[in-house]
User: Fold this.
Amino acid sequence: MFEKVLPIGTVVLLKGADKRVMIIGHCKYNGSDRSKIYDYAGCVYPEGYTSPDETALFDHEQIDVVFSLGYRNGKQYEFQKKLEKALAAMESEKDSNI
Assistant:
């Protein structure tokens, strides 16, 4: 399939959902709740971002179908590598605290 980090602008369908979602961010908390970091933030597609209350937070495992990958270039690949490294460090830290 695809890497763990999909680029901004990627359009997906989540498992059990009827509407498509476009990825607009990575590693997001749900408000002030810092107990869980979600892999992605998204907005409904094709409507787009309408308000913070309409933003979906989801993890990579919840993606059922990838319809379109967002724009990718050298900058995006650099960002992806840094983000994957940071995520791996966070997972390692979390595992050592258990």
